[in-house]
Amino acid sequence: MSLGEFLYMGGHAPYVWTSWGLSMLAILSIFILAKRRNARIRRRLITQLQRKDKFDV
Amino acid sequence: MFSILNRFYHQLGSPKEFYPISTVTTPIFGLLALALFIPGAYLGLVVAPADYQQGDSYRIIFVHVPAAWLSLMIYVIMAVAAAIALIWRMKMAFAVVICSAPIGAVFTALALITGSLWAKPTWGTWWVWDARLTFELILLFLYVGIFSMYHAFDERRIGERATALLSIVGVVIVPIIHYSVEWWSSLHQGQTVFRDGGPAMPPSMLTPLLLMAGSATFFYGYALFLNLRAHVLEENKGKQWVQGMAKKWIKRG
To answer: CATH number of the domain that B175 lies in?
Structure first.
């Protein structure tokens, strides 16, 4: 099977690749949003702590 | 046996215990999801033969069925967690409910969209108001409703209780969707994998389907744990153990 044939999907390319593409996009979005959410709260905790330390000194 | 279960329950039930455990388990879920996805996608897109009736369009099944499976499984997990949260006032159980709802909504939407993309070349239409499709759409509204309800209350505890209650009541939709293709005549095809007499699929198609479904399940575990970790930190930011961890992060730079 050639690459062209593979991408053509027997004429169903728009349906198959849109389905797979959207699925990958959904998974990637869930992953990135969750990672960012963790980074954000960690950053906030760190800055809060650093600010508090400054006042304590 | 019981004591192990008991310990497990109390460890996962306490945010302080959950956090370090999840540091180890979360990436394992992610790696397992990836490890099943790669062969699943390869076998499904390249190796599996075209269907004798539908040609290559049936390859949508490898993303459609896992998404639909997750839309139901996540709901069941959410409803069980909601019951635990209501009965034993367990904070972590409620965290599972509120972290699962958006993930469930995404996979339900995905099941509907990929289903629609599969329906067009197969049935000749994007959508029919058929029992399974309609109830799956209602499931999407339920997920969205549960998530919105939590954020709609000023009084948090009331919001949590209302959200948990709605999750539990809504679980009735899961068997309705599952059996819809048997109870009502439907354009949607019947049970293919879990049916009497074994799966109606050759192994060349069944293997990638199971790999993709397994991968999706682990991905849900991964995404849930990632969100739980952030949720736990957000909820406990004033606590000693969180402050202690933040100190370590600063030291590490």
So the answer is: 1.20.120
